[in-house]
Amino acid sequence: MVSGRGVVITGGLGDIGMAVARVFAGQGGSLLLLDARGDPDDASSALRALGATQVLVHRVDVTDAAAVTEAVAEAHTAFGTIDVIVNVAGMMIYKPLAELGADDWRRLLDVNLIGAALLIGEAFRRMRPGGCVVNVASVHARRTSPLVAPYAAAKAALVSLTRSAAIEGKPLGIRVNAVLPGAIDTAMLRASPNIRSGAEVIDPDDLGQPEDVAALVAFLASDAARFITGEDVVADGGRMGRL
Predict the structure, then answer these.
(1) Res 243 pLDDT > 60
(2) pLDDT digits 0-9 by tens, 214-233
(3) Scanning 5, 138, 159, 209, which has its CA 20 to 30 A from the CA of 236?
(4) Domains of the chain by residue range
(5) CATH of range 6-181+210-234; options 3.40.1440.60, 3.40.50.1110, 3.40.50.720, 2.60.200.40
(6) Left if phi > 0, otherwise alpha if psi is -120 to 50, otherwise beta: which for 143?
């Protein structure tokens, strides 16, 4: 449970981000959602109706360090505490390696890795002992497919960052873990040219829902996971485990 706790969610207006927000809202948490897109008013009303104590929504690019710091500082003042940070924000582009330019690489690394790193820094500066960070990475960190090299590389780096942050966070009493979702029914998955062309076919039994990821995030943020840190947990319906 996170009743009375302050929760920050990046990519908070996306499919997975909102699923995570709904879980914590139902537990009475105070929520700060950071997202570059989406409808802040609709999200705020829906989450308050679910039981969130307070809801703040900011249109913020997670790579804008000053804007992130300002938003988190406002939430810390409003909530009196920041106890959980969930890094969901992410993006993909689909290009062969030979066609990727430096700007492509920088943008993907900025959103998928550096944004999370900035929020971890905020956690370490503001959280009390007992706080936690959950990074939403991807199974692409372990096994991947064509045309998504920057995304896969950034998510692999996010898993490595999770381990480093867990080591530095332990003396502070802050746990850091990662979730590696597989195929999840989101707008990002549906936009994949690999999926749309039929080059990649997902068995319906291997297709998860945003709520499946949210449930795992909530567990890792709970007292039941107090002895778990530095781990990357796969949630893919067993897809990677089959030969």
Answers:
(1) no
(2) 999 999 999 999 999 999 99
(3) 5
(4) 6-181+210-234
(5) 3.40.50.720
(6) beta
